[in-house]
Amino acid sequence: MVCIAAFIILAIIGIFVAIISIFKPKVGKAYLKMFKKAWGCLWKKVRLQKCETGFKDDVKNTILSRVIVKHPKWVKPLSIVIEVISVVIVVVAVWAILTAIKSLLALWALGSCNVTKPSACSLGAEICSIDEEEPSNIFEATGRWFTEWAEIFEAIPDKFKTYNAEDYDFNYVSIDTDTSGDKTIAIDIFDPGCSACLRSYVNQKAAGFFEKYDVHLVPFAIQDVDNNYKFKNSEIVVKYMFAVEQLRSGVAVAILDHIFTEKNDDGISYQMLFNDEFSREDAIKQLESWLKDAGFDESGIAEVRKIVDYPETVDKMAENRQIIEQQIRVKGIPTMIYGGKRHTGLWKAD
């Protein structure tokens, strides 16, 4: 282990030695000699052969040379300490390498280098993440580490898969009330409270995405493992969108337009108000105000309230969640399916 630990340390400090050797070539030559010995030892270990004891002794003697003269009794315990530290260095290095490989594979397969909490990965797409429960102890963390590997390998085939929007039986609201054309279906999964979804929607609208495709908007209120909602009023917004869609096409999309593109008289975006300011009662009041603007009278609004409270409305949300999290294995939204591919993250014009 001393040989392997020495190789790891020498490999790390080699970056700095390379710079120093420009000004002091002797340092570079001495380092290179030691590094070759360490590499030779490591290569033998890989082939399950014994390392040169000479190199191991060189490392130990270099470290213990100053101790042996003044404190000879310390040599044996310090030698044991060196062995223990070497084991720790090797274990940490192996763990770090495996974690780096896992993170890169997760980034490629799932779109985020952090499987449990996708939003924690700064290298991934701009998303509102669907987080899993964080491990509470070392045993759960160990089990979670292996579970993440399984999730990654399960997701790898999805990278080579052709996605067809028609294959997924989503409950949705249609953005295009004219069904006489032959546009290709596109799925757009969003959370009304998600800022990345807002920017993605604005980009799509400006680029004519909704005119190019028959877009099925899938409202989805992100929940955690305890079924708490990520954004406090997303659940009631989604329910109202589904309820209104049953009575009159186009109004649900108008509600989304209000939330994603408009501000109140004080210049505050409605999404921010729904997320941070409105109570549930305030949110309902604002939604029903928009329904009145869309031509709903009191009896029409009362009908919407009934549908909102139907168990079927909750079932629709549960069905969508199962497809999103289990079938498609989405780790964050917005997520779109079109052109035979799944696209996760902020939408930008091609």
Keyphrases for this structure?
350 residues, alpha+beta, Glutaredoxin, 3 domains, 5-stranded mixed beta sheet, two-stranded antiparallel sheet, 13 helices, 7 strands, 60% helix, 7% strand, disordered N terminus
What features would you describe in this structure?
With 350 residues, the protein is α+β, with helices and mostly antiparallel strands. The chain has three domains: 2-96, no CATH class; 105-158, no CATH class; 162-344, Glutaredoxin. The chain has 13 helices and seven strands. The protein has helices at residues 2-23, 25-46, 53-70, 75-110, 138-155, 195-207, 209-212, 234-247, 251-261, 270-277, 280-293, 298-309, 311-327; strands at 128-129, 173-174, 185-190, 214-219, 332-333, 335-338, 341-344. Strand 6 and strand 7 (341-344) form a beta hairpin. The longest helix is centred in the first third of the chain and has 36 residues, at 75-110. The two termini are 52 Å apart.
In short:
With 350 residues, the chain is an alpha+beta fold. 60% of the residues lie in helices and 7% in strands.
Q: Going across the major beta sheet, what is the strand order?
A: 2-4-3-6-7
Overall morphology: elongated
Average pLDDT across residues?
Answer: 79
Span between N and C termini? 52 Å
